[in-house]
Amino acid sequence: xxxxxxxxxxxxxxxxxxxxxAAAAYRGIHxxxxxLAGERDEIFPAxxxxxxxxxxxxxxxxxxxxxxxxxxxFLLEAKSGDVPRTAPGYFETMLSWSKKQFxxxx
Length: 106
Description:
By secondary structure, the chain is of the alpha+beta class. Helix content is 42%, strand content 15%. The protein has helices at residues 3-18, 22-27, 46-56, 90-101, and strands at 33-38, 62-67, 75-76, 85-86.
């Protein structure tokens, strides 16, 4: 397959996602929001993602957690011969935030 045609097809399929306006989407949310970001995320850079969220979502409804050295999948870079690991605290953060939202204390 011609690489240019493959790229063109990807842009057609994912063009909408590639031009996603997070600020517009955030404006329509009126519930508490948890933003999780990986500092090494090359798809949605953490600094930009968090900045947009903080500019649009009221502080009292926003919780932000950034994971150092984590990529888009919240994985840490594997050391030689090792397998990638999930960023420490990733699952615990989701669970504790969710419990808080539903009034669960344990």
